[in-house]
Design a protein that fits this description.
single chain, Threonyl-tRNA Synthetase, Chain A, domain 2, 4-stranded antiparallel sheet, 13 strands
């Protein structure tokens, strides 16, 4: 400050020991002028002054600017609303005065303007065509003839009704789906006995002694349960998979090393004639009907022919992988249609991301969609970013009302509405001025949100790490907020299914893959390379490391 005073305040022509800045100011000022010049010294002193002020008062300039900016925006918003209210009241007053002045006009002066002949009466007959204003006095029976009502507007029906008239919120009917009844000749008891002896003989040729204790025929494969002899390792049987396929004259066999609840080894051999799994029968099964969750999924049938129904809310995210033609896209269609047949738009909403622009475009326009089907990957990043923001908002809302998940939140809101005491929105900003007649909004039930990504590899290639971070955040935290992910990819490599994604997506669904490495990438174990394709899958739910073999249902394009 003394140096600044020496530079700009009370400069004297006489050289004195003391000047306006004192001895210190004079010495520092002269040194600053010699080094930086007058302008540079001034800027340097101003910067040093504010730096010293910051260190002395511990003030944060960023926080100060934030407070000033927030208050400025608040004052601007309130001022704008005041101006709008004032302008609306002023316009209302002007219109009222204008109507009052119009009522004071003498109505007898109006016919004189349209009266061209003074000899004619004020109200001429109806046949006069000179003045269109006077024609309004004609009787209404003459203006609207009765013959016009009988003529129909549309004489030809352009399109037949595709669906029956349903009430809003009603679920679709299963009659829209095809009922496929395909009779496939199964194995007889003698044929199964002969195949059991053939399996034992084939393994005995490789010095592996086993005994077939049970046979489980299914719609696509037949499982033989084998009890190995004492001292026979399971790894020896697993290493003979290709040799067994050659000996049994089949395309491939799969060795199940561990069967839950049993001490036997499983050998799965494909049937000669394959049965097609009907999606309609799965939806009409008692297991799917009894499922209460709106996120229930019908995946297909297991090796015994029983329907496989799972709950996406318990997964809580699903990773789907498989090569082209393995049935991955059909499985995604069955999952989506299962939710459409189980939940209304008030219960489940969806975000569909389709880089291929063909697979999910048929769902465009359904009421369950939060946004149109996303085909641009830049928009996909924005959609995931919105989902992260919605997740954070739901967490704040649930912490305000004291619940731990979305089901508890919806139950709390529903019970409050049934008791006639709806809960006010705790996140409502009280700084916002309510308009006349408005009140604080009440809480409503929140739907589950399912994000379906059809081709994760393509999206990772275009957008990159930004999408991976967003997916990882959703996979880590979105379960309690009711947001679930279904990730599908054709290329299950480590650069697509990174460790961060795999660690937070415990449920896996693998179709046929090209190599054992891809199978280990998806399932953390081999076996998917021996699948048959066309819907043959290995499903590993969360909480277990033993995959379950199932056969996916088939849905045609016209059914979708």
């Amino acid at each position: 400050a003394s140096t600044f005073c020496y530079l700009h305040i009370l400069r004297c022509q006489i050289e004195l020991p003391r000047n306006s800045g004192g001895i210190i100011g004079q010495e520092l000022g002269e040194a600053s002028i010699i080094t930086f010049g007058n302008s540079g010294a001034t800027l340097l002193l101003i910067a040093v002054f504010f730096a010293g002020l910051t260190l002395y008062t511990h003030i944060s300039w960023v926080k100060l600017m934030e407070i000033v900016g927030r208050n400025t925006l608040l004052l601007t918003t309130l001022g704008f609303r005041k101006v709008v209210l004032f302008w609306g009241k002023a316009r209302t007053k002007k219109e009222y005065v204008y109507e009052t002045e119009q009522k004071q006009i003498n109505p007898q002066e109006i016919p004189a303007v349209v009266s061209f002949d003074k000899s004619e009466p004020v109200r001429p007959s109806v046949n006069v065509k000179k003045s269109p204003v006077i024609n309004f006095a004609a009787p209404p029976e003459e203006v609207i003839p009765a013959q016009l009502i009988a003529k129909p507007v549309v004489t030809k029906k352009l399109q037949t009704d595709l669906f029956k008239d349903v009430e809003p919120g009603a679920l679709p009917d299963t009659e829209l789906l095809d009922l496929r009844v395909i009779k496939v000749r199964g194995y007889s008891a003698d044929e199964l006995e002969d195949m059991s002896r053939l399996v034992e003989q084939s393994l005995q040729d490789f010095n592996v002694i086993v005994e077939v204790t049970g046979v489980l025929p299914g719609p696509v494969i037949t499982r033989f349960e084998m009890q190995p002899a004492a001292g026979v390792k399971v790894s020896r049987v697993s290493g003979l998979a290709k040799d067994l396929a050659r000996s049994l004259s089949v395309t491939s066999v799969r060795i199940v090393e561990v069967i839950a609840g049993k001490s036997v080894i499983g050998l799965e051999i494909p049937n000669q004639e394959r049965e097609m799994v009907s999606f309609r029968k799965g939806l009409e099964s008692s297991k799917f009907i009894k499922a209460k969750s709106p996120l229930s999924l019908f995946l297909g049938k297991d090796i015994a022919g029983a329907p496989v129904v799972t709950d996406l809310a318990k997964m809580p995210h699903l990773l789907v992988a498989g090569t082209t033609g393995s049935g991955k896209s059909v499985a995604i269609n069955t999952m989506i249609m299962s939710m459409l047949y189980k939940a209304t738009p008030d219960q489940v909403r969806m975000i569909m991301i389709d880089p291929k622009m063909l697979e999910l475009s048929v769902y465009e326009g359904i009421p369950h969609l939060l946004t149109p089907v996303v085909t641009d990957m830049k928009d996909a990043a924005n959609a995931l970013r919105w989902a992260v923001a919605e997740m954070e908002r739901r967490y704040k809302l649930m912490s305000k009302v004291g619940v731990r998940n979305l089901a508890g939140f919806n139950k709390l809101v529903t019970d409050a509405e049934n008791n006639g005491e709806p809960i006010k929105d705790p996140m409502y900003s009280y700084e916002t001025e309510l308009a006349e007649g408005e009140s604080i909004p009440t809480l409503e039930s929140l739907p589950n949100i399912v994000i379906v990504i059809d081709e994760l590899a393509d999206m990772m290639m275009i957008v990159g790490k930004k999408v991976e971070e967003l997916i990882a955040r959703l996979a880590q935290k979105a379960r309690a907020a009711g947001i679930h992910l279904i990730l599908a990819t054709q290329r299950p490599s480590v650069d697509v299914l990174t460790g961060l994604i795999k660690a937070n997506v415990p449920s896996r669904l693998s179709f046929q893959v090209s190599s054992r490495i891809d199978s280990r990438t998806v399932l953390d174990q081999g076996g998917a390379e021996y699948l048959l394709g066309n819907g043959d899958m290995l499903f590993m739910p969360s909480g277990t490391n033993i995959p379950m073999r199932a056969h996916g249902a088939f849905v045609d394009d016209h059914e979708v």
